[in-house]
Predict the 3D structure of the following.
Amino acid sequence: MSTAPQSGKPPKTVAELCQVAELGETAAQLATPEITGPDFIDAVVAAGEFPDAVKFLAFSLPKRESIWWAWVCARRASGATPPPVIKTALDATEKWIAQPTDAHRRAAMAAAEKAEFGTPAGCAALSVFFSGGSVAPPEAPAVEAAEHSTARAVAGAVTFSALSGDPQGAANAFRSFIAQGVEVARKIKLWEPAP
């Protein structure tokens, strides 16, 4: 049984996204009515408000693409030979990205719990669990995840990834991960006007 990610489209305007993502005051002040998504991200990064740029992207991207972004960042932050529980969480996330079934979604949650939600890999796997389908146990009545849970978990995974290495290199890590998120947005033509 396949569970397609929730189909709710992310808010479209920069101002709407700033509100929904609960960006800080500095970032919100940069959201002029005419600013585009890419220009806004550039301005937020230039202001050094890296976590807000991450949140903006996490709330902008469709769920599957944002989870892929979280997974790539977590994988990079976890190094070449991550501990087994971290590797399991990364593998579970990757498996769901390739085949978004309910069984893979629930396996990602089990892996996230073992890896712990305060790790990049654990947070990435948690974002999978919130992507669609019930968050209640399989035998219980269905309960939907809170709106934007996936985006919040993705933002956590990317932020934890940037902060997991040398503190002196956090700004560069943030810039690299944000650039990767922007590239994902460009590839799916996120900011191009609808035909």
